Amino acid sequence: MTANITIGHETSGKEVLFDIEELLATRLLVQGNSGSGKSHLLRRLLEESAGLVQQVVIDPEGDFPSLADEFGHVVIDGSAYSPAEIEALARRIREHRASVVLDLDGLEVEQQIRCAAQFLTALFDSPREHWYPVLVVVDEAQMFAPAVAGEIAEDTRRMTLSAMTNLMCRGRKRGLAGVVATQRLAKLAKNVAAEASNFLMGRTFLDIDMIRAADLLGMERRSAERIRELERGHFLALGPAITRLPLAVKIGPVKTGLKARAEGLMAMPETAPEDMAELLTKNLASEAREAVPPPPAPPAPRVDEIAETIARAEERQVEAPAERADTTTVASRIAELITELSAEEGIAFQSSSAQYQTFLTRCRRERLIGPMPDMQAFRRRFAIAGSGLDTLDEELQKRIMQLASAVDDDLLAPFLVIAKASHTGETQVDESALARAYGTSSPGRIRRLLDHLEKQGLIVVREDFGGDRTVMVPGLESQATG
């Protein structure tokens, strides 16, 4: 299954596609000097993929809160919360799969760095059951992963480097796909930049940055001048999620963001010099005496209030259909999707969180609005469908599920395969079906599985001198041999 978006066009007008699923596995590095269109590129990527994947944006300049109006992102003002609350919000964001913008514009530089570092670390340290795929976009990444020590405190630098390194180097297994954007490659820590496999290089002028960009794109160094000549909004692309050979891309239009300022010069005011001097100096002393501090900012919403907003964010991001299907139809289609998913080749070898994410993605694509099974309920229904237990009559299903009530969730699917075979009196347990249900191809793991279930008193295994195994489930009349 692929999920392609159009990031822009070649000079010939041909669309340039971006594979979001490949991006989740390979990460992205964007470089461009101020005015090159770097933020425009990030906005295009976020807008086009908003309906496909959860998004978290670290925004030090306040450029991305407008995503909330069009796509339902939750905007979190980093200056309004304590460090502990920021970490709690990060954990809830992973749990509820909300797309958010962490707006750091109201903080000083070092505060921005510490806030982002604690937020990223909390995302990284979230519980395993919340490791859903998410794009983590970090703008002005040279601030958060500096190549050399700057003016910030050493403990702050170590904290932020650790957070960014975890995101780019170890985040993939946790579902975190880093997208880092920087004005200068030379200022970005090399161990952070080196983990990206996809590159979009915009206009830059310094030789050191051009040479590094050319090296990453696999271009000869004498061709690096091409990067200096790029127009605004044009990038050189390379990577498995975009293209196997360097390709010039003009980034497409966006829907959100500040209205474009008028380009070019503006006529100067025609006020006479003496009148202008009076405008500037009249009653200046009294105005200075009467100056009052700006009104205090409104109190920030409590964490529990914003958590409720986060919990509903996913529903807001899904475009509501003209007519909602009735609950019965939705429930029936959900059951069909779980059955279809359980029958797919290789799905059992994925983690439960990856299976659940695939299921939710398909529900969103079909615009299924209604109560969804949670992670635990999905795992049980997936195990039932994968074992074929749903083909038996309801009374027998209830009986087997009562016997399975003491079985751990991760062992439920293979136990149900054994129980079904035991009840139907098959001559042997289908070891390929058992291996598929358990998500393994190792005979050793199958043996250890049977030993574990027997020690738990859930099955009885007898093996004769010929090596054939008889597997029985106490409480079911028939038995199966293997």
Automatic annotation (TrEMBL):
Residue ranges crossing the lipid bilayer per the database entry: none
Superkingdom assignment: Bacteria
Residues in AAA+ ATPase domain copies: 24-234
One GO MF term: ATP binding
InterPro entries documented for this protein: AAA+_ATPase (IPR003593), ATPase_Atu1862_pred (IPR014588), HerA-like (IPR008571), HerA_central (IPR002789), P-loop_NTPase (IPR027417)
Record keywords, A-Z: ATP-binding, Nucleotide-binding
PANTHER family, A to Z: HELICASE MJ1565-RELATED
Protein name, UniProt field: ATP-binding protein
